[in-house]
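Local shape tokens

___
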Amino acid sequence: MNVTEALWNRRTVRAFLDRPVPRETVEAILSAALRTPSWANTQPWEIWVAAGEVLERIRRASLERTHAKVPSHPDLPFPGGWPEVCRERTKQLTAGRAQVAGTTPEDPAFHRDFLEANRRFFGAPCVVYLCMDRSLGHWSMFDLGAMAQSIMLAAQDHGVDSAIAINMVCYPDLLRKELAIPAELAIVIGIGLGYADPLGPEDSFRSERRPLPEVVRFVGY
């Protein structure tokens, strides 16, 4: 698979099979992703990988807190708001997901079920956690974004699906307890790795992307 094919085939999987990803496959994915560029070669990322019983304990605790309505408190706070055009795209995304679930965005059960799916990490058998020192700034965050994309594309090359989600890191104290992540590191994002469940309703949904003429401005070309 070439890079263009990986870009077109990659999607956020929201229903994984109960099938482990072999450690050697995860190591191959991350070894390739470590070629990601960074500002002045700072390589600001620190990475933890959870699977097996450890991940199941994190998953169970995350669901228990969700059912108890414990507020999330990720190390990186949720955005305070979005520009109207961005909000409109999120509404379209929600409407599309509701449609394949056979309901509407006005259905409270849809939102409850989707939050629970997020908090159980969509059943991913493996989660990669990207962290960085709290003293680092926006440019290092940019580097971690590049790393996240590298991981997902490398996973695609190995036949492994992925889901990147803030809800995988919304209770950082759980992660620190189970994974011994130091307090001086911010837990930035989680990436679920696994194999898509072809029978999951979400598997039929594909979100739209803005066309090139709407996004790109050529000047002097």
Summary: The domain at 3-205 is CATH 3.40.109.10 (NADH Oxidase).
